[in-house]
From TrEMBL:
Top-level taxon in the UniProt lineage: Bacteria
Keyword Ion transport attributed: no
Family annotation (Pfam families): MFS_1 (PF07690)
Location relative to the cell: Membrane
Membrane topology field: Multi-pass membrane protein
Region annotation Disordered: where it falls in the sequence: 421-447
Keywords: Membrane, Transmembrane, Transmembrane helix
Entry protein name: MFS transporter
Length: 447
């Protein structure tokens, strides 16, 4: 099946990448604003740090169900339709969570929100990869993932503004209410973004009985030829997500509550990290189209080790008037460079799987890793307590995950340069057809 982008106009391709960037940014914004609201939620609902951190865990666990559900829908009803529904679900759930009346209702709404979030990344990323030039996928997916830096900056600005401008009981509600914005993007996608031509062609051949696509796409992603890749990819994403959330979720608390840093300094560090991280996404995206997907994962992730060195050697360093001389100022910045390793994930995963299971595999694996990594917000406080209440020591639990991510990056097959997504893995010897069927399948015609 030819995954060519030649049938799309420049305006359509621009609309696709902008929509995917906005979708992912709004997705991550809803997750990253929570750390800035955690102190307010904790005081408002009179709950512990571990309980309020579990809100993030519940959200990310819900994303597993959402990843499986919307990934399956993406393979059955189309990439565009699945993307629309994910945006609607998590936008409405975000608004609902702003009106939670107790801790249990907040957890319930964040679980539903997580289901919506779970499908957004996979649906958008697969749609993008099926419409973009294969030689520029690395840069394109890095642009999409790089919107995470905009999400991080927006979450810090809005989150701090909300808790400083409103009462303890209303600050976090106003912050969560802003998460309803994706419903506008869903309307835009409905009327102005095209469906994947590759998926439409595949759907025609499937309906015509010319495709050997598995009925159960979950089983298909663990077929004999894909099983090892699926397990390795799931562990790889788990390692990344565990490391990411073990640090990102607690950096605001470390700066504001532990080190008593002025909010304006925290804001400056966060915005600087967003800018540097965004630049890193672009540079690494450009390089992984030229040096390979593995290069795009390993090189930035090395910067994570530098961030952990800061946590280890300067865990109690406080701000004394000079941001540049304050070691913890550099923590989110260096960590943001390391986190740009995520920029290669969309292209790499999409290129590993054939079209008939692609949305299911990409979405399920990404969200499995995200959910498994969500254990970090629960384990970090527990380890911190064991270390005498030292939050920086608790955050160091992410170091083994960073090392595992680096090692597993050497295990996944390199895919740069494939003209057709997952062509090398799509072993047609397992799918006998006659010559006429092959011709019809290639042309996307009905029998």
């Amino acid at each position: 099946m030819n995954d060519t982008a030649a049938t799309y106009s420049p305006a359509q391709r621009l609309g696709i990448i902008v929509s995917c960037m906005l979708g992912f940014a709004l997705d991550l914004y809803d997750v990253l604003i929570l750390p800035y609201l955690m102190p307010s939620i904790q005081r408002s609902m009179h709950i512990s740090l571990a309980e309020v951190a579990s809100i993030t865990t519940v959200t990310l666990v819900g994303s597993v169900a959402g990843g499986g559900l919307f990934g399956w829908l993406g393979d059955r009803i189309g990439r565009k339709a699945a993307l629309q529904w994910t945006l609607v679900v998590f936008a409405l759930a975000s608004v609902g969570s702003a009106f939670a009346w107790n801790f249990a209702s907040l957890l319930a709404m964040r679980l539903v929100l997580g289901i919506g979030l779970g499908g957004e990344w996979g649906a958008g990323m697969v749609l993008f990869n099926e419409t973009w030039n294969p030689q520029r996928r690395g840069l394109g997916t890095a642009l999409i993932q790089g919107s995470a830096t905009v999400a991080a900056a927006g979450a810090s600005v809005v989150g701090l503004w909300a808790v400083q401008s409103f009462s303890v009981d209303w600050g976090w509600r106003v912050g969560l209410l802003t998460g309803g914005a994706p419903v506008i993007l869903a309307v835009v996608i409905r009327f102005w973004m095209p469906e994947s031509r590759a998926w439409e062609q595949f759907d025609r051949t499937r309906r015509a009985g010319l495709s050997a696509a598995p009925r159960n796409t979950f089983a298909g992603m663990f077929s004999k030829r894909l099983r090892a890749i699926s397990f390795a990819a799931a562990l790889w994403l788990t390692a990344y997500m565990f490391c990411y959330y073990a640090v990102v979720v607690f950096v605001p608390s470390l700066m504001l509550r532990v080190l008593h840093t002025p909010p304006e300094v925290v804001r400056a560090a966060t915005v600087t990290a967003a800018f540097v991280g965004g630049l890193s996404y672009l540079v690494m995206g450009w390089l992984n189209d030229r040096m390979g997907r593995r290069f795009g994962a390993i090189v930035p992730a090395v910067f994570w080790l530098i961030a952990f060195a800061i946590l280890f050697f300067a865990p109690d360093a406080r701000y004394h008037g000079s941001m540049l001389a304050w070691p913890v100022f550099w923590l989110p910045i260096v960590f943001a460079i390391g986190s740009s390793a995520l920029g290669v994930v969309g292209a790499w995963l999409s290129e590993l799987y054939p079209i008939e299971v692609r949305a299911t595999a990409v979405s399920a694996i990404y969200m499995f890793g995200r959910a498994a990594g969500s254990l970090a917000p629960v384990l970090v406080p527990a380890l911190a307590a064991a270390w005498g209440g030292s939050l920086p020591r608790g955050m160091l639990i992410a170091l083994p995950a960073a090392v595992a991510f680096l090692l597993l990056s050497f295990v996944l097959p390199e895919t740069r340069g494939r003209g057709r997504t997952a062509r090398a893995l799509d072993d047609t010897r397992d799918r006998p057809r006659n010559t006429r069927d092959e011709t019809l399948l290639h042309n996307g015609q009905r029998r």
